Fold these 4 entries.
Entry 1:
Amino acid sequence: MPDFTIAVLDWALAASVAVTLDALAAANRIAQATGVPLRRWQVVGSGTSLLLSGGLALRTDALTEEADLGASILVVPGLGLDHPCLQGGPQGRFDWDRIADRVAMPDASALVERVREHSAVGGTVAASCSGVLVLGEAGVLNGRAATTHWRLASLLQRRYPACSPDVSRMVVRDGPVVTAGAALAQMDLMLLLIADVYGRDVADLVGRYLLLDGRPTQSCYMALSHLRSVDDTVSRLERLIEASLPEVPSLAVLADRLHVTEKTLARRVQRATGQTPGAVVQAVRLRQARHLLETTRLPVAEVASRVGYADATALRRLTLKTLRLAPGQLRGRAP
C-alpha cells in the first residue's frame, strides 16, 4: 500500500506537482543511502493522463470510487486556476465566482468526496495553495486552523466560516489536516510530511539537497497592494504605514486617516488578509528591513532604527523568528 497518494486535478499547478514528486524521489534516494526504509507513492487523477498548467502532461492512475487509499497520506497540490473551461472574472484568476466554478467541476467534486471519506476514517489529508479549497469543500477544515495562498485569505474565511485561517503561516498542522501557503509552499508541506514518514534526518537532507531555506511565514511575501480588489483599505493602509516609518501612528490615528473606525479597519484587514492591523504593520516593517539589509550596507542598528525597532537585537529577534535568518545572513541576497 502506498505511503502517499498524490491527487492531481486537470490543469493543476505544474510547479506544485513537480516539487511534490521531486521531494519524494529525493527522499527515497537519501533513504536508500542512509539505510532508512524506502516509501511508495501513487499519483491519481480523473484519468490516465492529465494536462497541467503550462501545457505539461502527467501520467496518472484513475481515481475511481473503488481506488483504495488505505492509510496513505492524501496530498492535494495547488488546483491551478487557469482551467480553459473557466470564464474570466473582474478579479482575474482570483475571482471568487471563478474559483467556486473550479471546485464545482466534476473532477474536483469527485476528489472532494474522496477527501471527505479518507478524513472520516482517520486518514491524513494535506494541501497547499488553492488545493486547500478542496479540503474546505470536503468539510475537513471545520473547527481547524488552516493556511492557503495569501490572496485567498478572504475567500477561505467567507466560504468556510467554521475554519480559522492564518495565512501569515507557511504551513499549519491541525491534527490530521495539514495545509500550506502559495504554490511553492508545497515544498514546505512535503518536508513536514517527509519528516513524519521518513524521519527528521531525511527531511533535513532533502531540504539541503534541494536548497530550501526554512520559511515559517508568508507575511514577508504578501503584496498587500494586490488585495485592493477585495478591499482597497488594505493597500491604502500599507501605503500609509510605509510613508510613516519609522514612527507608525496608533491604530486609532491610522483609522482616522483612512476615514474609518478602528473596528471597521480591524474587520476589513482581517477579512482581506486574515491578520490584524498590528500584524500588517509588522509585515511592512519586516519587508522594508529585509530590503535595506539585502540592498545596502547600512549597519543593522541603523536598519532597525529606520523601520521603527528599538535596536538591532529587536530586529534580529524578528528575522530569526519569521525568516529563520539573522540580519547578517540577509546581506547580498537580493538579485
Entry 2:
Amino acid sequence: EEEGAAAPSVSGVYFICPLTGVVVRKDQKEKQLREAIQAYFSVNPVAASIMEIHTFNKDREKVRLCVETMAKYLDNICLHPEEEKYRKIKLQNKVFQERISCLEGTHKFFQAVGFETKTLPVPGQGKNSWRNTTEEFYVLKEEMLSRLEELKDCREQLLSSEPLRAQLHRQPTLFRPSPAAARFELPHDFFSLTAEELRREQRLRTEAVEKAAMLRTRAMREKEEQREMRKYNYTLLRVRFPDGYILQGTFYAQESVSVLYNFVREALRDDWLPFELLGPGGLKLTDENLAFNECGLVPSALLSLAWDAAVTAQLEEQRSPLRPELLAGAQSLS
C-alpha cells in the first residue's frame, strides 16, 4: 500500500439544480428544487405545476392515477366542448378528493390551465330534495373553449412529464502526481447509514467475523459482501494517468463503469484516444455495464489508466493528453 498522509478528498456530495444551475449540498437539494420550481411559476405556471405534481409526490402509483384522472377531465372537455357538465369539477367529489386534491401541485395546475373556483347551487338530496344547496366547483373559463389545442398540449405535458431531479455534481478535480493517491477521507454524505450507525455496524461486524469465519460458505460470504456494498449511495473514484496525474470524480454507487469511461474521455484533449481502466490489483474493467458497487469500487477506489499500445509512443512524444483548463487548475494532494 502506498505511503502518505490522508488526502483531503471532497467536502461532501453536491447536486446541480436543473432549472437554475445552482450547486448545492445534498441536504439542500430538495429546498433548492422547491425554490426553483416556485420561481418558475412566473415564467410558465402550467409547467411549474406539473413539475410540482411529479416531483414532490413520492408515491409514483398515486401520481399515475392522479394524472390519468386529471387528463380524463381535460379529455371530456376537448371531446365535448359544448356540454357544460364537463367544464365543471365538484371539489368534494369522492374521486377528486381521493385521487387529486390530496396531491401537491394539482390545484395549481387546474388554476394554471384556466379553471376558476365558483360556488354553485346543487339540487338537494333525499329528504332535502326540495331545497337547493351550494358547493365549490372548478369551472373552466369560457375563453378557454377557443383554446382547446392549448388544453390538449397541457394534457400531454401532464401525462408525459417525469420528476425533476437534481443532477449529481461530479466535482471533477485533477491532482498532481502524489504518493497519497490511494488515501481517501470521505464525508458522511457518502454513506447510507449515519455516522453512529456505521460505528455500531463496524463494532458488531468485527466481533462476529472471527466467530463466523470458519463456518461461512463462499456463497454466504458473497451475499454478505453484496449487502455491504448496498450501504453506499455514492463513490469517490480516482483515475491515475501514466504520467502520474490523478483525475477525481463523484458518482452514484449504482452507476455503470461506462459512466467513468465517459468521464475520463471528457477530460481528454482528444476524446477518441483508446484506453483501458484497471481496477485495484490491475484487473481490467472490460464489462462497462457493471455497476461500481458490483465491481467493489465503493465507497472509493483508485484506478489506473493504460493507453492502447497503438497510441502509447505517440503520446510520449506529445504534450499532456489532458485538457489545458484541467491542468491549469491541478491541485496537490497532501
Entry 3:
Amino acid sequence: MAVVKLFAAWPSAYSYRVIWALKLKGIPLYEYIEEDLSNKSPLLLQYNPIHKKIPVLLHDGKVLTRSQNLRTNLPTMAVVTLFGSWFSPYAYRVIWALKLKGIPYEYILEDLPNKSPLLLQYNPIHKKVPVLVHDGKPICESSVILQYIDEIWPQNPLLPADPYDRAVALFWIKFADDKCPLISKLYRTDGEEQQAVAKECFEMLEVIEGHALIGGKKFFGEDEINMVDIAFCSVAYWLGVIEDFTGLKIFEPHKFPRLNSWIQNFKSVPVIKDNLPDTDKMPALLKRRREMLLASKSKFELVKLLIYRTNSNWFLLDQYFDWVSVRSNSNIIDFITWRI
C-alpha cells in the first residue's frame, strides 16, 4: 500500500474535509502531521510553496493541495471480504491479521453445515473457511492468507525481514499447521483414541516450551506479536475451552511456564482480547458436534461388524429405513458412503 501523509491543523474545516474523505474511502492508515500555522514546518513550505497552506496530502511521494483536489484524487482501497465461522481458530487467524494491519473488511459468517454458494464458488477444492476475497480474487487456507496479507499490506509486518529469522518463523507456522489440529480431535474422540490424542497434544506443548519459546521472549517474534503467535492461537485459547468441555487436563502452567507466560501476553494484546469468540456459546456447539461425530462413528462401526459377520448376503439394520438388503461389495460401499 502506498504511503499516505496528511499535513493539517485541528481547527481547519478544510483539513476535516480530507480526514472525513479518507475515512469514507476506507483508508485507515495514514500519517497525520499537525501543523502549527504560526510556525509552519519546512516540509509544509516545501510541499506547498505557492499558498503555504494546509491541507496537503502526500500520496506515494506525490503532492496534492487544496481540499477539493484532495477529495477527488484520493487513493482507493480494493474491497476485502472474509468468509469465516464464529468458532474457527483459522478464521480468527485472518481476523487478527487484518486488524493488526488496520485493513477494513466485510465479514461473512458462514453456517458450516449449510455452506453458501459463494463459499463453494470461491473454495471449490476444500469447501472450508477461511476464504479471503481481495478485489474479487479468492485466497484460501489461513497460513497462505496470512502471508498474502503481509505481502500486500506491508505496514506492521507479521514476518521478520531477515531471511534466516523468516525461515525459522515459517518453520514454526508449518509446525502449528501440522500439530494444532490435534486440539480439535480431543472433543471428536473418546476412550483410548482420545487418550492417545491427549498424549500427542502434551508432546506438542513440550516441543513449543523447550524449543520455540526460549530466551525469555514475550512473543515468538520477540517484543511484538507476529505470524507465529497467530498460528498458535489454538494453543492460547481453544485448548483451554476444549479441556473444560472434555474434562481433560493437558496444559498445566507449572509444567509449561514459558508457554503460560506467552498465553497471558498473547491474550492481553488489545486486537486479540477484543476479537475472541463468545465462550458462552461454545459448550453447546461442542456438545452438538461431539454427539453427531460419535454417533456417526458408532453407526459406521456397527455396519462394519455386520458386514464382517456375513458372507454372500448381507442384511444391514438402519435405524431410519429398517432392514436393508445389500448383495455386493460395491453396493455396501455405496450404502456406507451415502448414509454415514
Entry 4:
Amino acid sequence: MAAEPTKHDTLLRQWQMLRLIPRYPAKITAGDICDRLATDGFKVTKRTVERDLASLSEVFPLLSDEREKPFGWSWKKEAVPLDVPSLGNGEALAFKLIEQYLAGLLPHATLAQLAPYFRMAGQRLNTLPKGSSFQAWSDKIRVVQPAQPLLPPKIDARVQQMVSDALLFDRQLVVRYQKRGEDELREYLAHPLALIQRGAITYLVATLFDYADPLLLAMHRIRSADILDERVHRPKDFDIDRYIAKGALGFGDGKLVKLEAIFYEPAAEHLYETPLSEDQVITPVDDTRVRVTATVANTPQLEWWLMGFGDAVEVVKPASLMEGIREMVQNMAAQYQLR
C-alpha cells in the first residue's frame, strides 16, 4: 500500500499546481494538471487534484469555468504572479533575454506561465535610471547567424502550441503537412522527438506511423496538428545530439567521410580556433597554403560551406565530393560565360 503523503508533500504539490494554472482567458483542466504533476514527480489522482483546486480557490484568486465539462481553471486576469512578487535587476534581465532569444523553443504552456514575468521584467527595467547598466545590457547583446540573414516564416500559433505540448508530455500527433511545391496536404501520425532551430527555420524531429527512422518536418509547413492520448513510441537509440552530429540538419544521410582540402592561409585562419572536428589536423603546404583534414558528415551543407570560399579552397578527398564541386563549378562557369 502506498504511503500517505506528508504535509510537506501536499504543500509542494499544491504550490506546483498554482504555478501550472494559467492566467485568464487561458485555462487548464484538472486532468491536465494531474498529467503535468505526474511529469513533475507527483503521483496523485484526478479526484485529489479536484479537491485541491476547490480548497485553493477559497484562498487564491482562481476562476473555474463551469460552462462546459471538463471544467477549466485560471488565475484571475489581474492576479499578481504568486512566486516572484518582486524581481531583482538580474532576474528581470534574465527574463528579458529569455523572451528575446528562447521564446520560439519553449513549450507553449511554459510561455503562458512566463508571460506575467516577462511583463514584470520589462516594467522593472523601464523604471531603472536612464543609463543603468542593467537597462542597457539588452541593447548590447545580439545573436547573429553566420550566413545571409533570412526572415523567419510564420508558424501557426495553434500548431506551435500542439507540437510543444505533445513534446512536453510525450504524446502522439496527427499533423497535416504541406510539402514544398505541393498543394495537397498529407496527413501523418507523428511521434514527436525534438525541436531544432536551424537559422530562420524550426524543425520538428519525428518518426511517422510505425517507421523507426526520424525525419524532419518544417514547422511552418504544418498546417494543423492535434494531440492524441497515445504516448509516443520513442526509438530506444535516439539521441538528439548524436542525430545532429551525424549531419541530419545538413540534409544528408549522416555518412562520415575524411575531408582533405587545401586552403589559402587567410581562408583557413578561423579553423585554428573553431575546428571542423575533434580529429582536425592543419599542416603547411607552402608559404601561402595549408592542408586541412577532418572527419565530417558528407552533406549538402558541407558542399555549400566549401563553395563559399570560392577559389580559396581546393577539395582533394573524398573523390565524390571533389567531382560534385567540379561539376557545380563548371555549370556556374557556363551560366556566366560571355555570349
